[in-house]
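Suppose you are handed only these lines of text.
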Amino acid sequence: MTDHRQAVAAAPDLEYCPLMPTYNPPSVQFVRGEGAYLWDNNDKKYLDCLSGLAVTSLGHSHPEVAAAIAEQASRLQHVSNLYATEHNGAVATKLDKLIGDGTPAGGQVFFCNSGAEANEAAIKLARRFGGRGRHTVVAAFQSFHGRTLTTLAATGQPQKWETFQPLPEGFRHAVWNDLADLEHQLDESVAAVLLEPVQGEGGVNPATVEYFQGVQALCEERGILFMVDEIQTGLARTGRWFGFQHYGVEPDVVTMAKALGNGMPIGACWAKRSVAASFQPGDHATTYGGQPLATAAARRVLDVMMAMDAPTVAATAGAELSAALEAIDGVASVRGTGLLLAAELESADARVVAAEALSQGLVVNGVTPSALRLAPPLTISTEQIHQAAGILSAVLGSTRINGA
Ligand SMILES: *Cc1c(COP(=O)(O)O)cnc(C)c1O
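From them, the structure of the protein bound to pyridoxal-5'-phosphate can be written out as follows.
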């Protein structure tokens, strides 16, 4: 019972947790957020350096996004994709322009409700584009593309596959940042390559420039789609609108989600028009995808991000946070891009450190057994960056963590 006290707080008479055991029992229940701060049900304040796993890039309860959702909620909440609604064309147009880094890229967008669904759309599009016999998607080891059966098959973490076999066919994995190994996987059955610019869940591992450029060249040469999963890296987090823009490449398909709604569930799959043209009416659909509450939120998110020049803000804050982390005793190195960072610890267990940081009022997570992930709101201030570094420094210096 005590393990589940947060989940059962609303039903104190229940003797078991009413939620399926897919997550560890939560130790904290958050009830309110503002900017980079969260408050729990005991009114304790926390500095959020995780942003709901890279989702609330504009900070919690952003007033303009909240207003857009509230206005839309009182005007029209849902119709269906049989009819047009107010925002989806505008959001698609804005995304297309950001993918072109300021100039329209000339692609088309499919809206859905999550990252996994955005990748599902990309995988179905790749199969439709490739045609029968040409359906394989090559992804990388340590990648993360989602938890549905198909996106789990794309995810390059074999330990996550085992209990759910058999998985859908048509996926292969290549060694990360190893162009020769990727080339080795390409045969006549391959329709697409799917990669993250920075592997997020896999440990915050950035692609090298040579790798991404080499992959694009191989894909072009063989008529294979280059699909980039920007679900975690997209929308300014890495210091560019999209992570691929650091590499001078132009992918055929781009998937996104997380930051797009600042917490409102929405995903999107963008593709070059020549590729998107493989889809026919009836090939793919979702009841909620592109529905007005989600697109109203996304439209305002994009307007706010453009007005503040979010990529520059993220790059500046990212450099500050990276320097502050490097200066901490007990941090061996810092990797990542913009505000998607991992601090590799000298000796401490990252999960223990994350739990202790939480009790000290700092939200981070252990992305590998030895590395912490930091993905704060892009709006994090210099003062808050130093506050976060101060808490981490105290946690890493404490005897409890060092097992003394
Ligand atoms: C989070 C994530 C996903 C899955 O998104 P969901 O919304 O959880 O389905 C896919 N790819 C990457 C790179 C992610 O970070």
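What can we learn from it? The chain has two domains: 4-62+310-402, 76-308. Residues 97 and 103 are 5 Å apart (CA to CA).
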